[in-house]
Amino acid sequence: MDKWEIVESYYKQAGPIYQRLKSFDQFIEEKVTEIVEESGVVECNNNVKIKLSNVEITRPEIVEADRSARVRLTPMEARQRNMTYAGSIYLDIALYRKDVLIDEKRTYVGEIPILVKSKYCNLYGVNEQDLIDFGEDPMDLGGYFVINGSEKALITQEVLALDKILLTESDGLVKAQVISVKGAFKGKVKIERNIEGLLYISFPSSPRKLALIDLLNALGVVKPKEILDLFSDDRLIRNEILLNLDKIECVSEQDALDKIGKAVAPSQTQAYRLRRAQEVIDSFLLPHIGQNKKDRSAKAYYLITMATKIIEKAYNLRPDADKDHYSNKRLEMTGKLMENLFRYAFKHFVNDLKFQIDRTISRHRKLNITTVIRPEAISERIRFAVSTGTWVGSITGVCAFMDRINYVAPLTNMRKIKSTLDSQRELYEARDVHGTHWGRLCPIETPDGPNCGLSKNLSLMARVTTDVNYVNILKDIDIEEIKIK
After folding, report:
1. How far apart are CA 437 and CA 178, in angstroms?
2. Shortest CA distance to 196 belongs to which of 214, 175, 172?
3. What string of DSSP letters covers 328-381?
4. Residues with Cβ < 8 Å from 168, sequence gap 6 or more?
């Protein structure tokens, strides 16, 4: 059988850049709304409150200075006129002062580049003859942006998996770490077992290592028998936990919170220490699980899972986590990269909104939505990042000019994968071909020089999936919510 018939059929159905378009569509349809809802209510000084809702992104248009006349913009016209092929962002904004509604309107707050041939592109679903009439190449698959007349493609970034437990061992210390992400916050939670068998945990905003037993007490698990019953019945594991319980005395939940409070807020009153300790636990300890008081029991179960894996690793019952295994990697495609950028830009927009409100009040001017909204707060940051390739977190080389020498060149450009690891280090295991690359990455297509093994390409028929909402999965299996008692 001729295998190329299968390849040809596959590309007719999906195409080589299918995942880029799907990723961007998900960003526009789902992630933009989530980011706006994260900052849905903005508390300002002087008893002023702003409510943001109902975000909408329009298709690219040519808009006059007074924002009246609108004409559909095509990628070819954007190239010829050195324009940015971008859609407008609109929000419903309500302005309150002392809980009294002062002003409410639907407002233009900025613009965001639109991926050519995505659902929000004016070329989406257009037939071949109309594409020719628009001056477009009907063979062009899209998947890139048009910024100031230049075609730019985002390079897929290879990163370590988030919200996943990874085990390591060095100098007799066994560690389990997880990079926990919630919105714009990203923090590393780490549990380690010292040579004496005691378990300690460190996480963001905690200035020193805390005993795991103390943290479990603070999470509401206060009795030694309760802690022991949460672990496995395996003799080795129970002996390790009994050792920790013998060395570290269990205390009440309030005493455990006060102990943490003395570390995070020293020399403060007890009431403030307790409140601050609760804020740190809820906000910075495993935020991907939740950031409310009701999520503390789930966090306790998660920490117990991490501790169990550490003990199993200490007795060689579990291997080290292979960071080069592709199950421990994730690919951040166009949609995810734009999500990170938009979240950063929108956060700056909210901060600028607070500043404009404070300045308007201090100058005793009339407070209304038109005077406090500055659309360039979002647009400038997105445009700068896409133009220069410098992304959130000081990552460089994310955006590159499209290579249009021939038909194949832009396709290889858009299926390229770049690792975020330092290319100046020589002896990386990450440079080697791993067995899990089979069927996913091409073992040959990589450059010579510093980026050898760090810059890779997807294999011919590899496809990358987009994020999946766990709520939809629970609905599919007829479970509304998982409750942990």
Report:
1. 23
2. 172
3. GEEEE-HHHHHHHHHHHHHHHHHHHHHHHHHHHHHTTPPP-HHHH--THHHHHH
4. 174, 175, 177, 320, 321
How many Cα atoms occupy the beta-carbon half-sphere of 19 within 13 Å? 20
CA distance 467 to 258: 39
pLDDT tens for each residue of 69-101: 568 899 999 999 899 999 999 999 999 888 888
Q: In the beta sheet, which residues pair with residue 89?
A: 57, 110
> What are the Cα distances from residue 331, in Å, to 326, 415, 416?
10, 11, 11
State both tokens at 225: 């028998």
CA 64, CA 73: separation in Å to the nearest integer? 12
Q: Angle of helix 270-284 relative to helix 296-314, nearest 10 degrees?
A: 70
pLDDT at 382: 92
SS3 400: strand
Strands (DSSP E) along 156-309, which ranges? Answer: 156-160, 166-170, 173-182, 185-193, 199-202, 210-211
Q: What is the pLDDT of residues 270-302, one digit of tens each?
A: 888 888 888 889 888 899 888 888 888 889 999
What is the residue whose two structure tokens read 């007349």? Answer: 149
288's tokens: 């991907």
SS3 of residue 160 by DSSP = strand
Q: Which residue has the tokens 């005691």?
A: 198
Can you list the domains of the chain with their CATH numbers?
Answer: 16-159+329-457 (3.90.1100.10), 166-314 (3.90.1110.10)
Helix (H) or strand (E) holding 42: strand 41-43
- Residue burial 266-276, b: 16+ Cβ < 10 Å; e: rest: eeeeeeebbeb
Say what the pLDDT of residue 480 is: 60
pLDDT of the residue at 70: 67
Confirm if 367 and 357 have CB atoms less than 8 A apart: yes
- Number of C-beta neighbours around residue 319 at 10 A: 10
- Top pLDDT among 472 and 346 is at 346
**Cα–Cα–Cα angle for 331, 466, 325, nearest 5°?**
35
- Residue 365: CB atoms within 10 A of its CB come to 10
